[in-house]
Amino acid sequence: MTATATSVAAKPSILKQPKAVWAIAFASVVAFMGIGLVDPILPTIAASLKATPTQSEYLFTSYLLVTGVAMFFTSWVSSRLGPKKTLMIGLALIVVFAALAATSGSVQEVIGFRAGWGLGNALFISTALATIVGAASGGTASAIILYEAALGLGIAIGPLIGGLLGSISWRGPFFGVVVLMAIAFIAIAVFLGAEKTKPVPSKLSAPFRALGRPALATLAGIALFYNIGFFVLLAYTPYPLGFGALGIGLTFFGWGLGLAITSVFVAPRLTARLKRTTVLRVALPLLALDLVAAGIFVHVQIGLVICVVIGGLVLGILNTVLTESVMEATDLPRAVASSAYSAVRFMGGAIAPPVATAIAAAVSPSAAYWFAAVSVAIGFVISVAFGRNLKRVDDGAEADRVEAQAITVGDAD
């Protein structure tokens, strides 16, 4: 049975999961809320703390840069502490730094505390994906769909809650994360059992060596440039959109809802009928075209809103297909592959917001979207030029077993 056929066969059992999986999924929703939470309040923070738009975009950059760098080391940490302790440390760090960000008095302080938040986010996200894959029933395909559903839901709810609480005070969304992450911490502590086997320490170099694998390096390269498009759409758009916090929140709630729907319901159907690489090579140009359209309609509110929502629909497909591809691309342990890929992916997200804002200030608001479109187009070129490296992504079979040791084993070489 092929990986794509397995995803369809496993679909009916996606809701029949252990309590531990649901606890991690809930925590994942809250963790991904943190990405889009500050989106609706960027203009408000800039005005309240007397910061420029580019300075406020560093709220994304510090968070994503630290997340990306730390991702290289999360498999090393989790292989020594075990997934449960790693998840709980990550959640605790998010609680602490979100609280500190909420009480900050300057944009520089918020940027710094968002960096600490990113460290906690890295420890949690990469470990959560590997843990869900190892613990979920229904195989890898079901686990990834569940994880992507949590991602989509978190990204959808984050801007909405950010807009609702941000319309009261820019500090409100940060305090909201503190409460929700504290609940997630308790859920993980109660429902995720202790590891039955002692973690096998991985090598510190494992994620770096993993990027030497042609398949993983190719997927990471695609994701680097694709994520630039992702975060230009998410982080830069609040400024030309021209809405208040609530209006921005509602717009990106629609964006995130579209992302969640296509990641869970559309992507599996496409990969059941088409090769994963084919789906990537269709979706990437569609995203680039959507970003070009956003540049054209940058001064037309309804047009820009439509481009944002359509972008979410395409992004949901790309997120799921890329994540599935990474999990199937090599015989490396899941935690190592996830850490290496995610590290590079988040680097693209870190670059995008301040660069887009600077380009918009120097050239025009439309130019920021065209920069994003060119970046996504480069990702498409990589998928075509190095397509031979992705043969296993299309042809590899999904084994009908739970690879629990993938959570802890660090280096398969």
TrEMBL record:
<feature type="transmembrane region" description="Helical">
    <location>
        <begin position="20"/>
        <end position="38"/>
    </location>
</feature>
<dbReference type="InterPro" id="IPR011701">
    <property type="entry name" value="MFS"/>
</dbReference>
<dbReference type="InterPro" id="IPR001958">
    <property type="entry name" value="Tet-R_TetA/multi-R_MdtG-like"/>
</dbReference>
<keyword id="KW-1133">Transmembrane helix</keyword>
<dbReference type="InterPro" id="IPR036259">
    <property type="entry name" value="MFS_trans_sf"/>
</dbReference>
<feature type="transmembrane region" description="Helical">
    <location>
        <begin position="303"/>
        <end position="322"/>
    </location>
</feature>
<feature type="domain" description="Major facilitator superfamily (MFS) profile">
    <location>
        <begin position="20"/>
        <end position="391"/>
    </location>
</feature>
<protein>
    <submittedName>
        <fullName>MFS transporter</fullName>
    </submittedName>
</protein>
<feature type="transmembrane region" description="Helical">
    <location>
        <begin position="145"/>
        <end position="168"/>
    </location>
</feature>
<dbReference type="InterPro" id="IPR053200">
    <property type="entry name" value="YfmO-like"/>
</dbReference>
<feature type="transmembrane region" description="Helical">
    <location>
        <begin position="89"/>
        <end position="107"/>
    </location>
</feature>
<feature type="transmembrane region" description="Helical">
    <location>
        <begin position="242"/>
        <end position="267"/>
    </location>
</feature>
<dbReference type="Pfam" id="PF07690">
    <property type="entry name" value="MFS_1"/>
</dbReference>
<feature type="transmembrane region" description="Helical">
    <location>
        <begin position="215"/>
        <end position="236"/>
    </location>
</feature>
<feature type="transmembrane region" description="Helical">
    <location>
        <begin position="119"/>
        <end position="138"/>
    </location>
</feature>
<dbReference type="InterPro" id="IPR020846">
    <property type="entry name" value="MFS_dom"/>
</dbReference>
<keyword id="KW-0472">Membrane</keyword>
<keyword id="KW-0812">Transmembrane</keyword>
<feature type="transmembrane region" description="Helical">
    <location>
        <begin position="174"/>
        <end position="194"/>
    </location>
</feature>
<feature type="transmembrane region" description="Helical">
    <location>
        <begin position="369"/>
        <end position="387"/>
    </location>
</feature>
<feature type="transmembrane region" description="Helical">
    <location>
        <begin position="279"/>
        <end position="297"/>
    </location>
</feature>
<feature type="transmembrane region" description="Helical">
    <location>
        <begin position="58"/>
        <end position="77"/>
    </location>
</feature>
<feature type="transmembrane region" description="Helical">
    <location>
        <begin position="343"/>
        <end position="363"/>
    </location>
</feature>
